[in-house]
Amino acid sequence: MKSKKQTVLSSAVILVFVLFVSCAFLLRPFFRPEVAAQESKTTAPTPTPEFDQGAAVAKLREQIKGREQEPAETVFKNIQNFKGVPAGRLLAIMQFGFSRSLGVTCTHCHTPENWAAETKPTKQIARDMQLMAAKINEDLLKNIKGLEGRNAIVNCTTCHRGEVKPALNLPMAAKPEEKKSR
Prior knowledge:
With about 180 residues, the chain is mostly helical. It has helices spanning about 5-30, 55-65, 70-75, 85-100, 120-140, 155-160, 175-180. The chain is elongated and about 90 Å long.
């Protein structure tokens, strides 16, 4: 017959084992590299091979020549979020602020040659996300104590980092001793 000490010790070992297995099961998404958004190869849409973004932007720049400083809503159709922004600047915002930040081409949100069309839900999502970033920048960041005087902003790149799906996990950080040796 087991002594009381042996029974307690056996129970403790079993309890530790159960806790270990439970923690390993619950924490497994944090240790699986395929979960990390930065490593995901399936989130970015495949650009249509026939679409040449550089040529499309050049064509738009040619079409608005001489009107680059006019408000975007007077030069382009269906402008909702960027009213008052110069038309030439709007093209740069779309090309660098949205396209590069999400790793996509214009075709992710737009139908070429019918830029005003509302055929893709991603167009409204981008509008809503831009309004969210504006609210964070204009209303929320300025109220965080300790950020006074800093130029704290968020934009598409803050979360998306060149991917359609925002980064939800970060890769495992190097141990402090590994960082020193680099």
